[in-house]
# Entry
Amino acid sequence: MDRDILDKLKYDSNGLIPAAVTDADGGGLLMLAYMNRESLEITLREGYTCFWSRSRRELWRKGETSGNRQQVVSITADCDFDALEVRVRKLGPACHTGAESCFFNELLPRTEPEAFSIQGLYELLLGRRETKPEGSYTSYLFEKGLDKILKKVGEESTEVIIAAHARDKRETVYELADLAYHALVLMAELGITPAEVRDELAGRHIIDRKVKQEKMT
# Structure
């Protein structure tokens, strides 16, 4: 905890500072809440978001009743030290309505497609798993179950090997995309999140870096 930055923060006349909560995995804006000094220190100490409820005038630990807590990844102050960005890993929807984000009432519709993200695709697959709309290939895979999904992962792995062995870059990219999609379907089926895979890779990177440092000493 950087006490110098903590002491520079500027709270409003009510002792509050706005906190924009963003998704550390998908990058999207989840909610806007307010913190006072006490709730910020609780957040820093416990590692999960705690806010000040302006309507109830009391401390509010996100998810204390719903279970939809937010694990803090980082907290950053803006250039004027009067607003915070809190990057979190959400353990459930951010909004009390059940929506993933509190920001869904469009004043001006998007004029361009939303940027692609692995997390966004994964959440779409989770939705397909729950609703299984007719005519959807993804729904078909979930309806057929794990054995069918595993078979497709195996088939796509073989296609990647064939394309790569032929040194066909374009075809290899195409087949890798197919493999990545089916791997995400498998993850959704087993309840494995992209964050868990990323954390596993990050852990290996740290171990590898430590080994290299030890060899140099």
